[in-house]
Amino acid sequence: MINGNYIQPIILIARGKSDGDNDLASLLLNKNISVIRVESGSEALRMFQTNPAISLALINADLAGLNGFDTTHEIRKLLPEVPIILFVNYVNIDSMRLSILVGCTRMLQNPVDPDELETIVEQYLIKCKNYV
């Protein structure tokens, strides 16, 4: 969306119903950011195929169907430059290795502190063209 000369960033949130995506969305909606919510990896992939203007993706590793790691890998084939933050329940050497292999930009452990997430999101969006 364009407000004057400002291009509003679009963030995709791919988390299951019970993963607290409403908390994430409410955090972001107060920031002049468009939010697209999906509940599966295949829905997230479709959003990237139809909307390449997505600025950032927040993806849960434990998605139904196409999991977050596979979703990240497929998104990388479409848009290699988009930042992808992957949420995992437990950070361990295997999840770290896999996140690097699939092209994850950053991995965070659930639950994420809202202030930390807000700071991280702003760091990635500040790189978006015309974001203030």
> What is the CATH architecture assignment?
3-Layer(aba) Sandwich
Please give the number of β-strands: 7
> What count of domains describes the coordinates?
1
Cα(first) to Cα(last) distance is 14 Å
Q: In terms of structural class, how would the helical and strand content be classed?
A: alpha/beta
Strand order, main sheet: write it out: 4-3-5-6-7
Write the layout of secondary structure elements.
Elements: E1 2-3, E2 6-7, E3 10-14, H1 21-29, E4 34-38, H2 41-50, E5 56-60, H3 68-78, E6 84-88, H4 93-102, E7 106-109, H5 114-125
Parallel strand pairs: 3-4, 3-5, 5-6, 6-7
Antiparallel strand pairs: 1-2
Helix pairs in contact: 2-3, 3-4
What would a concise description of this structure say?
The chain is an alpha/beta fold and 132 residues long.
Index terms:
21% strand; two-stranded antiparallel ribbon; five-stranded parallel sheet; 132 residues; 7 strands
Give structural notes.
The chain has 132 residues and is an alpha/beta fold. 39% of the residues lie in helices and 21% in strands. The chain contains five helices and seven strands. The chain has helices at 21-29, 41-50, 68-78, 93-102, 114-125; strands spanning 2-3, 6-7, 10-14, 34-38, 56-60, 84-88, 106-109. A five-stranded parallel beta sheet has the order 4-3-5-6-7, with helices on both faces. Helix 4 (93-102) links the parallel strand 6 (84-88) and strand 7 (106-109). The longest helix has 12 residues, at 114-125. The two termini are 14 Å apart.
